[in-house]
Every structure is written in C-alpha cells, then in structure tokens.
Design a protein that fits this description.
By secondary structure, this protein is α+β, with helices and mostly antiparallel strands. About 40% of the residues lie in helices and about 25% in strands. It is elongated, with a radius of gyration of 28 Å. The model has no long low-confidence stretch (mean pLDDT about 90).
Length: about 210
C-alpha cells in the first residue's frame, strides 16, 4: 500500500489557481545494508548479496565508460550524460572556440525505467490517500490572520496579496483564496476589495 500526497505547486506570478501534483509519502531511505538484508531473505547470503551488488556496479561503470548504454531486463537502462565543466563556456556549433576532451565531464548517469517494470508496479500497487501538502503553512490561526489583515489595512489603507503572504507565511494561492473569503464575508470581517487582476487590493468597508 502506497500513501499519496496531493502536493501544492509553486504558482505563476499572476496566478491564484491552486495547481497540484501527486507524490508518494515516503517513510525514509533504505540503505544498501537494508537492500542486502532484503536480498538475503530470498536465499542469498549477505556476503553473496554484497558481492553481487558490487560486481553489478563495477560492470555497469566499466561498460558506460566504454561508450555503451546498459539495459537490465525488467529494471531499465543506464547511460551517460556529458557536458562542459562548470568553468567553461559552451561552444557554438560553427564558432571559433574549440573545446578539447579536458573541458568535458560526466554530468550525470541517466536511468530509463523498463516499461515492463512499470506495468508490474501498477499491477501490484494499491494507493491510499495520505493528505495534502502545501508549500507554505501559517503558524497563525484564521482569526489571528484576519486580525493582522485588519490592522494592516487600518494602517496602510489597503492590502495586497503579497502583503498578506508576508504577514502570514501563506503560499500565494492560499493567501489569495483567504482574502477573497474575507471579502465575501465583508459584513463580519470589515474587508472588501477594489480593482482586479494585478491592481486588486483589499480595503476596509466604507461606513454607512
């Protein structure tokens, strides 16, 4: 069973839409020793499991350095990504600068998952809702945040979403939604709005 989190995504500059993605809830990292222990449960001794992992790493490394990609059925394929070193500029295709081998480095090892492994994972996987993850969560209660908004408007005569984010620690989408809810309950909050889009500000309700 995998618990999943609906995670809030960073918002575009002018967006208040709450986009999200799904991620698994993780409970820690299994080390090589943990993997060896797991392999030993399948009839392989711990020394044998450690040797098998070491030999596989050494063999994959050697083949990658010879210019091969390496595929393991049911798991995936490994290949190298190379580029210029960090202190070097990338040359133009037909430019005057010519980079030699000393200017290059291995940037990363790429791994592409075998589609059969993905099918097997999906076949046996069961998901369970784990909650919602937000980028920023305020330590203040709604009542405390409302009080801060009212005090800010009383002093500065208006409040922007960015101001409210700084006051409360909320993410942009959450801050914008909460201010809208305050304005929709203007009779009790004393807060309304003026303008729209980038010019939108929140102000005190006018007295009758």
């Amino acid at each position: 069973m995998i618990r999943y989190i609906k995670q809030e995504m960073p918002q575009a500059n002018d967006s208040i839409k709450s986009d999200c993605y799904y991620r698994p809830e993780t409970f820690g990292n299994m080390t090589q020793d943990d993997l060896v222990q797991q392999m030993s449960l399948c009839g392989m001794s711990k020394p044998q499991a450690e040797m098998a992992l070491m030999r596989m790493r050494e063999s994959i490394t050697e083949l990658l350095l010879q210019g091969y990609s390496v595929s393991i059925d049911g798991l995936g394929s490994f290949s190298l990504s190379i580029g210029v070193k960090d202190d070097k500029d990338v040359e133009e295709l037909d430019g005057d600068v010519r980079r030699n081998a000393a200017s290059l480095k291995v940037r990363k090892v790429l791994f592409r998952t075998d589609k059969k492994w993905l099918r097997d994972l999906n076949l046996h996987c069961r998901f369970e809702r784990g909650g919602i993850g937000r980028i920023n969560q305020s330590r203040l209660t709604v009542e405390q945040r409302l009080a801060k908004a009212q005090a800010f408007i009383a002093e500065h005569h208006m409040l922007r979403v960015a101001d409210y984010m700084r006051l409360t620690g909320l993410a942009k989408s959450t801050a914008a939604k909460e201010l809208r809810s305050f304005a929709e309950s203007s009779y009790t909050t004393g807060i309304t709005f003026d303008g729209c889009g980038p010019s939108l500000v929140y102000i005190a309700c006018k007295s009758n």
